[in-house]
Amino acid sequence: MKISILIYLYLIYPIYSIWFISHASIIHDNLSIVGNLDGMRVYFIIWALLCELALGIGFHKCIHKSIHKKYLIPMLSISSFMFLTSILLPYLPEEYPILSELHIVLSFVGLLSMLFIASMMIISLKMTYHIYPYDYYMILMYGCSLGIYGANYMSVNSLVEVFLGILLPIYLYHLGDRLK
Fold first, then answer.
1. Among the listed residues 150, 118, 165, the one whose alpha carbon sits nearest the alpha carbon of residue 137
2. CB 60: neighbour CB atoms within 10 A?
3. CB–CB of 175/167 below 8 Å?
């Protein structure tokens, strides 16, 4: 079972994500734009489900060991719902401006809340298990620096989305292994 999870986290999900974002500019576009290109809608929904599965694997490994699991599990469910709902809404600002704005709000709030949940969980695990997650802070700082670079283009770019989407589940999965 562990081998199949590692194959999924290290090969299947990252390769699919990289293939998916290769259909547009990794720096200038975000995944919402890629997902609404001609013929890419189904692949966008598949990518979102793969992303949720990867995040679910990573969070499942750690969240039950957190002293705040009573609060974090419902928050994670709401965040996942927001993320998946945003994927189902089209991002076509010219044709559907209100739905596009709702798509942006749900995806942005869903991502921020997921990062907040991960941070709160890691802080509580740090207090309980006396771990020092410097590597998590490095991932966040690197992701934020990519985001600042992408902000020059007034968009959270695909590079940031894929970077955090691939590394966060892998990090949480291995963090769960360290908490024994």
1. 118
2. 14
3. no
Which is nearest to 84 in space by CA: 48, 50, 55, 43? 48
The packing angle between helices 97-129 and 158-178, to 10°, is 30
User: pTM score, two decimals?
Assistant: 0.84
In 3D space, the residue among 164, 119, 176, 174 whose CA is nearest the CA of residue 14 turns out to be 164
CA angle 136–141–143, rounded 5-degree value = 95
DSSP E strand stretches across 21-173:
none
pLDDT in tens, 102-126: 988 888 888 888 888 988 888 888 8
- Give CA–CA dist 108/175, Å, rounded: 25
Q: How far apart are CA 93 and CA 90, in angstroms?
A: 9
* Residue 95: Cβ-neighbour burial (10 angstroms; 0-12, 13-18, 19+): exposed
160/1 Cα distance (integer angstroms): 30
Alpha carbon distance 20, 179 (integer Å): 34
